Amino acid sequence: MWILSWRCQGQEKEVTMTLANVISAIEAVASQQPPVNTIIRHDVFRINSLPSLNYGVFAWLQNQHTGRVSTGMQTYSFTFFYVDLLNEDGSNRIDVQSTGCEVMRAVLSLLDEMDIEVDSYTIQPFNQRFTDECAGVFCNVSLNAISSSLCGAVNPRKEVAIY
What global pTM score does this model have? Predict the structure, then answer.
């Protein structure tokens, strides 16, 4: 479980999921999937700049994140990708896409077990020419977690530079 406690002005507070915690959890569970050999951050098209890439790629992009101050809930939105090589004749296309669907479901299931609620997701198969002819799936997903917050008390003696 990712929720920790600390004391703040004499009260127990929860330290909860930051964006960095969520990304760390995503990468940890993706790396546990047997078909995944490489994780690419921020841009799936970086595949084109990695000449000795070990396929079975899991990539992620951040989308617009939203939250509610009143509930402390944060919704983190991502697009996940699973990409693998096609045979010369493309005969493994459905197998690659099927594997990608299973990788996505496994990643989402493991995140859900870590108190990162999978709010909604869609999975879309694709074919794409990167440096190599590939296929896979992408998954648009919204993940809910209690957002991290600092102690709420105001210290009027603290001086802060404002520009």
Answer: 0.81
